[in-house]
Structure formats: C-alpha cells, structure tokens
Amino acid sequence: MYRYLASAFAVIFVSPAMAQTVHQTEADEMDQSGDVIVVTAARTQLPASALPLTVDVIDSESLQRQAQISGSTVDAVSALLPSFSPTREKLSGAGESLRGRSPLYAINGIPQSTPVRDGSRDGYTIDPFFIDRVEVIYGSNALQGVGATGGVVNQVTVGAPSEDGIAVRALAQLTLPDGFDGEGIGAKSGGLLGYRDGPLDASFGATLERRGAFFDGAGNRIGVDGTQGEIQDSDSWSVFARLGYDLASGARFEVVANRFELEGNANYVIVPGDRATGVPSTSVRGVTPGDPPSNTAELLSASLVDPELGGGTLILQGFYSRTNDVFGGGVFGTFQDPAIDPSRTLFDQSANQSRKLGGKVSYERAIPGLEDLVLTAGFDALFDQTEQSLVQTGRVWVPQSDFRSLAPFLQSNLALADGVVRVAGGLRYENVQLSIDDFQTLASYGSVQVEGGSPSFKDLLWNAGVIVEPVDGLRAYGSYAEGFTIADVGRILRGITQTGVDVDDFLSLEPVVSNNRELGLEWDRGPLKASASYFWSSSDFGSLLVLRNDVFEVERQPIEIEGFEASLAWRTPLPGLSFSGGYANLSGRTDSDSDGIVDEDLDGANISPDRINLAADYSSGPLSLRTQARFYLPREFNDVASATDFEGYTLLDAFLAYRSDIGEFALAASNLTDELYVTYDSDTVRVADNSRFYSGRGRTFTLSWRGAF
Questions:
Q1: Which distant-in-sequence residues (6+ apart) come within 8 Å of 611 by Cβ?
Q2: Burial grade of 333 (CB within 10 A; 0-12, 13-18, 19 or more)
Q3: What is the number of other CB atoms lying within 10 angstroms of the CB of residue 165?
Q4: Is 170 in contact with 190 (CB distance < 8 Å)?
Q5: How far apart, in whole angstroms, are the C-alpha atoms of residue 298 and residue 316?
Q6: Helical ranges in 488-626 per DSSP H
Q7: What residues form DSSP beta bridges with 306?
Q8: Helix or strand or coil: residue 671?
Q9: What is the pLDDT of residues 63-121, one digit of tens each?
Q10: What's the predicted TM-score (pTM) here?
Q11: 80: part of which helix (H) or strand (E)?
C-alpha cells in the first residue's frame, strides 16, 4: 500500500479541502518509477502537494495479496488500516466504521451505500479480482454527497491492456482450514480477458467462489448468523465488463458493467454459546427455513473525460445500480401478526431492494492570467428508490422511499510563495427531498396508518485547508471539512407506533452533518516515510444504532469523536527488506440522556478499538515474503455493564509467493498462531445474547496460482 499525495483527474467528485497525508503501511510498495498515481476519488488534476486530503491507496498487488489472506476487499481494507474497525467476519457490515463513523463504499466513484435503509451489505458488491486499487479517503467529507461521514472507500476497477493485443489474467485458489476438514475447504477461480486495438479497448471477466464452513482456534465450527447473513458456507459469482474508446480529440468514452451475487448454502444452524463460561456459539448441520440470505448487486455506468476542453478538463458520468439484500428469518416478535398466524409462530424474513440513478458533471481549469488559482465547478444528481419487504408474507416493513439529491459545488485551490503554501476551500449546496406514500406499519407496531409526505432539507457544506511545505519532503497542514448523511429513514418509519402520524410532521430529515478538523505533520524523504495526525469531529444531531427488543433502531444524539493516527515505513539498507507500522487511537462520546452533556462512551456498535499494525516485507528476485501483526487493544466503556468491555486480541498473518515463468504460486496463512478469540462486535454488542457470541476464524491456509499472459 502506498503513501501517496495523489494527483488525479477523478472520474466524478469534487474534493473538499482537507489536510492531506497518505499513510505508508506497506514500505515495499513505494512508487519507485516516479509516475503520477491517480486517485480518482480526489476529482482534480492538481499535483500531490496541492491536495489537502488524507488518503490511503491499496494497489493491485497489495489488495490481491491481502484478499488471499483475509478473503475479501472489506477484510483487506480493515486489516491494513488501523483506523478501520475489525470486521464482523459475516456478510453484514453493520457497526463497521472508519474513524468512528460509517464510510461510504463506491465503485469507480459510484455509491454502493444506501443510507435511506442501510442493509450493511455495501462491502460485498464486486469481486476483488476486478479491482485495480482501493482509495480510502479519511474523515467526514462531501466528496460523494450523502454517506461519507467516516470517509470514502472507492474501489477502482481494472482496465484494458495498455498496448495493442490480447492479455489474459487467471486465478486458481484453494482455501484449507487448520484441521483440513473437508467441509471447511473453499475454492475460487477467475479469469479476465483484455483486448486493445488502437483507440478501442475492452475487458471481460468472471469469477466463481465456494466457501466452506469456518472453524475457530479451538477447531470448532463458528456459529452461523442466520439473520444478517454469512460469508462461510456460501457461493458467489461475478461477471465484469469494461469498454473504452479514445476519441481523436483526446477525450475518452467508457462503459463499465458488473454483476455480483453471493448466496448462503444454509447447511448449518446455530448452537448457542455460553457467555458466562466464555464458550462461543457453534454450528451443526441442519435445515434452515425460508430463503437463504443473499446479496445481489448490479452496476452500469458510462463516462466521458475530455482533458483538453477549453484549456480545462470536463468529466461527465451517468450510472445505474441495483441491489437486492435478502436477510435470514425467524419467529421474531416483530414479524408476528395474529391475523395471519394466531399461534404467534409465524416465520418470516426481510429483503432490501434499492435502485440508484445518478449523473455527475465537473469542469476544472486554471484561471487565465492567474494560473496559480485553479477552480473546479460541477453538479451532482442522485435518485435512490429503496424499500424493505417481508419475503414470506409479502408485507411491507419499510415503504418505498424515493430519495433525491441535487448538489452544485465549487472548489478553489491557490498556490502562494511558489507553492510553499497552498490554500484551498470550497462549497457544496445540498438540496435533498424524500418522498413516501401512505402506508401501514406491521401488527407488532400496532398496524397504524401513516400518512405519507415529502420532507426535505437544504444545506450548505463548506471546507477549507492550508498546507505548508518549507523544505522538500516535510509538510504540515490543518483543515476543516463537512460531510453529511441522513439517519436510517427505514428504521425510523417502520418503528412508528403512534396513530395519526404525518410523515411531513413526524420524520426529522435534518441531516447528520459531521465535520473533520485535522492537524498533521509528515516526512517523506529517502528511505523513511512517517506521518502523525490528530483529528476531532462532532455532529450536533448525530445518528446512533440502539438495540430495542430484537432489532436496532435509530436515535438522534450529539456525537463527538477524536483520534490520533501515526504511521512509519522504513526501507532498510538490506535490499528488498522493509518494515512498516501504524497506530490508531479513537475515543467517542454522546449525550444519551439528553442532559446537554456529551459524557457517555460510544459503544462497540458505533466505534472501533484502538489498534497497532506491524509488518515486515522482503523481496528478492522471484521470491516475496510478508508477515503482519494486528494488535486490537482492550477497550472499556463507561456503562454499568462490564460485559460490554472488549478484551482485545492479536492476529498474526504470513504470505509467501514465488514468481515463475508460468505464473505466481503463493501460500497465505491467516491467524498463524491459531488464536481463539471472540470478534469485537460479538464481545461488545448484544452481550445478553448467547446465540450471537461468535468466535473469530482460526488458522487458515490459502494456496493460489495467478497467471498473466
């Protein structure tokens, strides 16, 4: 992973002014060629020193290596970035955060998250085999409109060959649990065909993966999450296409399409554990009623980039995306309806359906006669239609919600004193409306009639930042940037119990406006790269997930978060050997009793533990090695229940690869010490639920072959 101060023309979004440093966590991945690294989510062509952004870039090699260790893109991001929370190791990403807030997932800048009714499946919408790199922008920002209160995780897809002809990439992979149990074996295969002929290029690919059962450090099957969905015991497949044409004028037209589907095989049922004795839940073979939990995502986008239009760069993009998230079911009290089943043993399950249409346009150029001042102007539009239904009975749990966002923006960047000082700032005006028809809540909420409406809000978000580079390689910065999202409207609507409610009067669509204030210092010279930053953010009307009965609901509370991040990378005098490390310390509080004092710790569903990452890399000729350690540090919460405290754990991973004439052969090992641990979410959330007491995955080996022809 690179520590880049990226310059970029981005495919779509305006960059708010935030102080930029790019944390170096993979010393062996430093750019030795001096080539410009494009960070598409930055949405500007300005050079690195002009961009006040905090960005991590995980390049293709690092991503594919980490995906073999961890299994998925979101697991790779979580493993490499200390400020990213540990994953739940399930299909659901609920509670996973970046800098204590929710990140916005995107593919080529196209949002995958659905804040209107967050199904928390946005980390599984494309196979990592089709991802060239992942760009992570830290902190609250309005880069991509709604949703990026914690930052942006932008997945940039692979392109076509750079030279005329045909190129093929292939992958064959076998995953084995520590005990080599047959039911735990997984396999994956993938292929990508690329073609270029003059101005025309194309890429077509497909992947297929089967995952077996997961085992913990004690050799026991890990408990299945039959409600939110599982990664273990599942099948997934994905198809991808990318077509491009370079026009004679220098402009480029491109179309990208992707479909991803993951579905559980439902071969296991949960056996509750015992929190009192520290025994995690397990699984046994059994029949699961209803439809298996699954996740389906489809994407189609078209873009036009003209880098020489009137002395500036014009970028146009339109997109369509659709997701269908099916959750597991149960005989839950929330789903009971005596009119359907008087015995109150009614089984049901829910599904989220979401559809997005969007368009973006931006134009950037230096001001004639004042070349040190660069302006970027543009307009973004997003139309999101989301609903949540009950699969078995056809009932509506969350009515169809039509979300519309229209946002013009303007950004400026001014170089002073021959670029020693840079000042940046900008504005983004959000015009949001939500349309909801009349609907009736479920029987468990009283079967009340709710009158629909069209609540709306308008808000002006701003940003500003300054960077000082007194000597080559030394940078200091300070910044402020605002981001926004809306509370999970679906959770609010489905939980209405009062009669005579009018959505226009009841539903508070006041946005969650969060800010990111940051101070930092970085050194990037010779074999040593280091950075340190301190940030703090707040939202006066934040959004928290609070457990009520058997479902999470939304509460609007003020939130304050602060943190410290540091990174260090050193290329040693020994050729090919490098060391790297990272540290993140986060704390967050809220006002849960509405007394005007923000003094209650955010719980494990809303903030991640502190962490230390250490890694060593060695490369010599065709051989490459990596070892990495993740130290998740203990955390205590100032609530009355000590059961919510996190004990912490340490995971050690290793990777060995050898490049031959017929491809690269690799062996990856995750949790090398086979440590038995309870996942962070299970250890801190729903601490009275013995079923949701999940252990983490034990030692696992992955054998792979990757070829390029």
A1: 82, 83, 582, 583, 584, 630, 631, 632, 633
A2: exposed
A3: 9
A4: yes
A5: 21
A6: 489-494, 503-506
A7: 314
A8: coil
A9: 999 999 988 999 999 999 999 999 999 999 888 899 998 899 999 999 998 878 888 89
A10: 0.91
A11: helix 73-80
